[in-house]
């Protein structure tokens, strides 16, 4: 084997099916985790500003615990702990149940960061807005839903974008939680004794795949942030 | 916090409603906890022999404390190297010369977009795979000399042409590349946040570019950057846990791969104990970040009051609490 064989993309394209399957698994995980984490984050942020102390404490406790735990630990606890040890399974098929636990773990983790971003957005809304909402007789949930949160969301689109980009990259950690995605496929290929010369093309290919996922997400949120910016 | 202005002081009806919500929410939370306790009981997870190991000094001495030492060691080495990387590339991106600015920008953006795990895999697997081929080529000698004289600092070994990278070096490499890029952005944003007049005043009294940077901009930028840097160090410390995937013997690996096989597979219990250690560590560092932020923004004012607690909103990317983006 000579040096030029190191850049031979042949073995990479021979296994392109497995790599694309891995990326599809990554996208499936990221898409659902994105939606769920947005919902969880919004609920948590509403809890943390609510008038009931118990709800506030629950929200704060959740965010403090989850934000300070490594994602690897969260995901392994979901798959090995809750699924395997406690038997809380979503389905009899192990692939499906590990997928749903990965989705739940990743969205529960990302949700805490969405909540914190939203809360900093609530802090940018001028006091007069909340006072006006109260003075026309809106209740807490009405003023939150119709006045405060819409403005808070517009203020934090850019930070939310970086939370989601981090989430897309974090899907790779799910490989530790028995969910087979692109890193799992990559590791399987690297471990093959026959896969000797394809290592550099494999890394270049996977890196390109993540750039394709991450860069447009970044541009989209940048564009959205500019479009929806509140003029003050 | 903004809770104060979002709702009126509750009247009698609101108080009654809040009391009902309190009871319902408490019951719900207690119910969840009870469900967990009941499920643990059904699976026999409260058994003493599963929890006892964590009360023994021997387990802490042999497994948990060495793991903690490896976690903190990797985090400390990576923090120092990443700060150096960040300072170089952050200042590089602000350079007046395009041939410095553009490559620095490309490198920083690339590593910020790459998952940490891919970078760790790159350092761990790639040299091992490609070094035998390089050893046969005309670069074989160069490879051996480089590994023997430079990369051996990081524990890299070469044996009959095959390079082996230890897990520690791979984890540190990944952490430095990713977090270094984040630090580079923090440095850039921090320097940009210094008012323009400061640099202009520096040039006006005859300082050169290096003088303005080192004596005027950096000292002021560092105070603004501190909270963001400490917040990123928390992220870095959490990210060392990814090392479990390539079997670096850090805290998580010790807890999940070494203890459970010896003690009736007590995975849940090990996870809870180790989770508590991580949370305590990170809360301590976050405290430091909050304190630093409070100290550094003490003297500034805002024009219009917002829902925040008063005081200037931190510069973009500079908040200890607002912009943390996860295990990135």
From TrEMBL, chain A:
Alphabetically ordered keywords of this record: Amino-acid transport, Cell membrane, Membrane, Transmembrane, Transmembrane helix, Transport
Ranges that cross the membrane: 23-47, 68-86, 98-118, 155-179, 199-225
InterPro entries assigned: AA_ABC_transptr_permease_3TM, ArtM/GltK/GlnP/TcyL/YhdX-like, MetI-like, MetI-like_sf
GO BP terms, alphabetized: amino acid transport
GO CC terms of this entry: ATP-binding cassette (ABC) transporter complex
GO molecular function: transmembrane transporter activity
Cellular localisation: Cell membrane
Membrane topology classification: Multi-pass membrane protein
Domain of life according to the entry: Bacteria
SUPFAM superfamilies registered for this protein in UniProt: MetI-like
Annotated ABC transmembrane type-1 domain residues: 23-221
PANTHER family found in the cross-reference section: AMINO-ACID ABC TRANSPORTER PERMEASE PROTEIN YHDX-RELATED, MEMBRANE COMPONENT OF AMINO ACID ABC TRANSPORTER
Family that this chain belongs to: Belongs to the binding-protein-dependent transport system permease family. HisMQ subfamily.
The protein, known as: ABC transporter permease subunit
TrEMBL record, chain B:
Subcellular location(s) of the protein: Cell membrane
Keywords carried by this UniProt record: Cell membrane, Membrane, Transmembrane, Transmembrane helix, Transport
Signal peptide: none
Compositionally biased region (Low complexity): 317-328
All residue ranges annotated as the ABC transmembrane type-1 domain in the record: 68-289
Transmembrane annotation, as ranges: 20-38, 72-92, 104-126, 158-178, 224-248, 268-292
GO molecular-function terms, A-Z: transmembrane transporter activity
Annotated GO biological process: amino acid transport
GO cellular component, one term: ATP-binding cassette (ABC) transporter complex
Membrane topology: Multi-pass membrane protein
Family: Belongs to the binding-protein-dependent transport system permease family.
NCBIfam families per record: HEQRo_perm_3TM
Protein name, entry field: ABC transporter permease subunit
Organism this protein belongs to: Actinomadura rayongensis
